[in-house]
Amino acid sequence: MPPARPKLLILGTGFASFSLVKTIDVDRYEVIIVSPRNHFLFTPLLPSTTVGTIEFRSIIEPIRTARRGIRYHQAACISLDTDAKTIECQSAFDSQRFTLAYDLLVIGVGSLSNTFNIPGVEAHALFLKELADARAIRSRISDCFEQASQPGLAHPNIEALLHFVVVGGGPTGVEFSGEMHDFVAEDLSKWFPDLLPFVRITLLEASGAILTSFDERLSQYALRHLKRARIQVRTHSFVKEVQPGRVLLSTGEEIPCGLVVWSTGIGPTALAKSAALPRDDRGRLLTDATFRVHGHETVYAIGDCARVESENLAATAQVAQQSGEYVARRLNQLARGREPKAFTYHHRGMLAYLGGNRAIADLQNVKARGFTTWLLWRSVYLTKLVSLKNKILVLGDWLQTLLFGRDISRF
Ligand SMILES: Cc1cc2nc3c(=O)[nH]c(=O)nc-3n(C[C@H](O)[C@H](O)[C@H](O)COP(=O)(O)OP(=O)(O)OC[C@H]3O[C@@H](n4cnc5c(N)ncnc54)[C@H](O)[C@@H]3O)c2cc1C
Asked: For residue range 233-285, what is the model confidence (pLDDT) as tens digits?
């Protein structure tokens, strides 16, 4: 009989857990993954799928095909018992519950879109976090255009339907606005020419600036570029409620619209909030510099749901990916009886697409913007996609969009 391998239970299939699964030595650990999502999603290109620049399946990779020799259960972990070393899960298909035991647990459950408890957001706005969100946005855009071209509709109703409101001036909100602009300028203007004068895109931001995590000159450039593209950017605009077909601002102003995309930041998942583990004031699980949860020798937390106490790392894909890889290497070294090295984060810079084939890049020694930066943006993300299949599909999608435009079918 081969010696029993320690049971390594991994929660989630996002950037952090996926990179761990790719790197862990499956001959040394029995790897079991639990996640309600049976695939990895490459979020940096998610905004492109909302308008069809890229197709949905081009940016996902099934977890089962990512690595041989692993087990996967499509379920959500709903509670942990760190004394008994078990977790309780709820199936993704019905209310059936089951318990799994572990020797080592890695929590990589990511985060949720934060609504700040603003009334109506959950019910009437769309988020941009998962593939299902992107699909809902794409259908809603088609619905708005087809509905607006029904005969007999009054002008104010057409204007409202074709007003696309984005809440949140961070990278996701800006990238969606840019993609929406491209869709209107390159495709919808051809197929709905009569409706073009009614189309508006408005970006609402509660603070005084957009893309605040970028160098100030780049964020100013982004603002100028969006304005030139006739995207209305309204800073100091605080949304106090979302109702069906309109957004209400704290000033009392009502903004009629056909679609609201909500991207104002992230908050903790239900599991991170409820688990009896130490947390910071933003609900992230507190870990030491090796990503071990404080006071729990056998529990690790990685990615967006974790907070290394000595270093406040941003909630980004590169941090998540590096934390997952590090924990896998650490566990591999421990299994071989070697002393693991300390974690060091390598910041590779930030990129954002602005629409109209323009992007910005905030790299260590270079602050770049414009058309060539857009080419850099595309090539960086093409190389970062996690499989050859994804790379070929995304290249094909870009070529298809260039040659035939984006698909506007509604189904
Ligand atoms: C639209 C968009 C664009 C982005 N662009 C960039 C970018 O350009 N660059 C960048 O660095 N970052 C970007 N990010 C941020 C980046 O996606 C996140 O920081 C990263 O995904 C975090 O990785 P993670 O593994 O911690 O979480 P996630 O990737 O969110 O994965 C969490 C996983 O946990 C699973 N899960 C949730 N609850 C449970 C549970 N109870 N039990 C089991 N599993 C559970 C989920 O299904 C999912 O599989 C973007 C994010 C979005 C939404």
From this structure: 999 999 999 999 999 999 999 999 999 999 999 999 999 999 999 999 999 99
Q: What is the pLDDT of residues 368-400, one digit of tens each?
A: 999 999 999 999 999 999 999 999 999 999 999
Provide CB contacts within 8 A for 32, sequence distance 6+: 7, 8, 9, 10, 70, 71, 72, 73, 100, 102
Q: Whose CA is nearest to atom 49 of ligand 1?
A: 13
110 ligand 1 Cβ < 6 A:
yes
Q: How many domains does the structure of the chain reveal? A: 2
Task: Look at residue 200 and tell me if it is in a domain.
Answer: yes
Ligand 1 atom nearest to CA at 320: 23
Question: Based on the domain organization, do 378 and 250 belong to the same domain?
Answer: yes
Classify residue 180: in a domain, yes or no: yes
How confident is the model over 24-57, as pLDDT tens digits? Answer: 999 999 999 999 999 999 999 999 999 999 999 9
Q: Which atom of ligand 1 is nearest to the CA of 352?
A: 8
Q: Does residue 14 form part of some domain?
A: yes
C-alpha separations of 210 from 163, 202, 248, 354, 408 in Å: 20, 13, 20, 12, 30
Do residue 83 and residue 128 come from a single domain? no
128 close to ligand 1 (CB < 6 Angstrom)? yes
- What is the residue range of 98's domain? 7-111+268-335
Question: Is the minimum distance from the CB of 108 to ligand 1 under 6 angstroms?
Answer: yes
We report the CATH number of the domain holding residue 206 as: 3.50.50.100
Q: Is 269 in the pocket of ligand 1 (CB under 6 A)?
A: yes
- The residue whose two tokens read 């030139």 is 228
